């Protein structure tokens, strides 16, 4: 089963199905649920950023879907 991960990128917290390690000094690019490919970043305060509304809606839809639809 895929899991949703929340990553800070471009001033907001975004949802992704990619497993991203944001503590790395090198930004990892992830595909977000709002349809963008962004460089995940963490400056220590990034988790206080606002949540991306389209990602939040997509995460709710993903979690409400039957597990058989979540595999890919």
List key phrases describing it:
72 residues; alpha+beta
Pattern of helices and strands = EEEEHH
Radius of gyration: 12 Å
How much helix, percentage-wise, in residues?
10-25%
Figure out the total of helices: 2
Cα-to-Cα separation, first versus last residue: 9 Å
Strand order of the largest sheet: 1-2
The parts where pLDDT drops under 50 for at least 5 residues are: none
Name the shape in a single word.
Answer: globular
The averaged pLDDT comes out at 84
Class of secondary structure makeup: alpha+beta
Number of DSSP-assigned strands: 4
- How would you characterize the largest beta sheet? 2 strands, antiparallel
Strand content: 25-35%
Describe this protein's structure.
A two-stranded antiparallel ribbon has the order 1-2. A two-stranded antiparallel sheet has the order 3-4. It contains 2 helices and 4 strands, in the order ββββαα. The chain has helices at residues 53-64, 67-70, and strands at residues 5-9, 12-16, 28-31, 37-40. It is 22% helix and 25% strand. The protein is of the alpha+beta class and 72 residues long.
